[in-house]
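Render this sequence as a predicted structure.
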Amino acid sequence: MTAPNDETEFLHELEIEVEAEVIRVESSRPEDAAGLPVTDWLFDPTDAEREEIGLRGLLAAVEVLEDDLRPGDPAE
């Protein structure tokens, strides 16, 4: 089992990585690609939107886990 500090550090690093991926997907502007003919697509905009939704879900889960590991926070 990892120590709480190791878990906190891991979750923080994971959060940073996931946030970077969300920014990358957002910058691909899938809504703009959807307006182009399919032959001009560099990626499937629907796949990009699905990826963003999944990443946002992962980011929310990481944030919940981080909140659970913070010492001294009162239990709700």
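Summary. The mean pLDDT is 86. The radius of gyration is 17 Å.
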